Amino acid sequence: MIAPSAHPAPQAAPTQQSLPTVRFATPADDRFIEELQALAFGPGRFARTAFRIRERFPIDKSLSLIGEIDGRPVASVWMTPISVGGMDGYLLGPLTTDPAYRGRGAGKLLVKEVCARALARGEGSFVLLVGDEPYYAPLGFAPTTPGAIQFPGPVDPKRVLLHSADRTLALRLSGAIAAFGARKRV
Ligand SMILES: CC(C)(COP(=O)(O)OP(=O)(O)OC[C@H]1O[C@@H](n2cnc3c(N)ncnc32)[C@H](O)[C@@H]1OP(=O)(O)O)[C@@H](O)C(=O)NCCC(=O)NCCS
Fold first, then answer.
1. Which of 17, 41, 72, 90 is the most buried (most CB within 10 A)?
2. Is 116 helix (H, G, I), strand (E, B) or coil?
3. What is the pTM of this model?
4. What digits encode the pLDDT tens for the residues 70-91?
5. Which domain holds residue 130?
6. β-bridge mates for residue 160, sequence order
């Protein structure tokens, strides 16, 4: 179990499993998130392609969400504003849940919430991620055209998934990952 940085322990053990809730992350969550990601992805995480994107393009801290169970932080998700082929959107990840709290819905709740909040802004048209289709398909993610979206490093094309109100976009979107708003600045 990950020790939360500045959050109180629950007062009493719940008699039945409580549902997860969501809140915005604050700077007090930074250590918890760092420890969670280190546990999930290990020291090799900085070499992963998705981490490389986040080095080039900063995450949107106003879309950094924490999943809680019984008032304890147990899961985290980040969003990175990006563009692909001149269209603005977001890269979701990492999504991580404390192993002691997996299978209780925190991960899926965070995906649903962060996608809804990001797309409701009306500034980005899609959410892209690299992940397992069986997990993300029920959350509205569809496979993209293999090789159409170019990442700054190796990715398994079958794991490049996209969520958009436009159901045709997953197969149409193509181009290299660039900064959010890149086309407007040209
Ligand atoms: C993937 C992860 C975030 C899921 O978190 P979670 O809070 O347990 O997710 P939920 O409780 O919402 O969903 C759990 C369900 O998804 C299933 N599931 C978990 N990972 C899965 C995967 N890779 N593929 C398919 N199904 C998966 C579980 O078996 C479980 O199924 P059930 O509801 O039928 O029992 C968590 O396992 C984790 O942190 N993994 C390590 C980091 C990672 O791989 N992140 C995703 C890529 S960025």
1. 90
2. helix
3. 0.91
4. 999 999 999 999 999 999 999 9
5. 22-185
6. 130
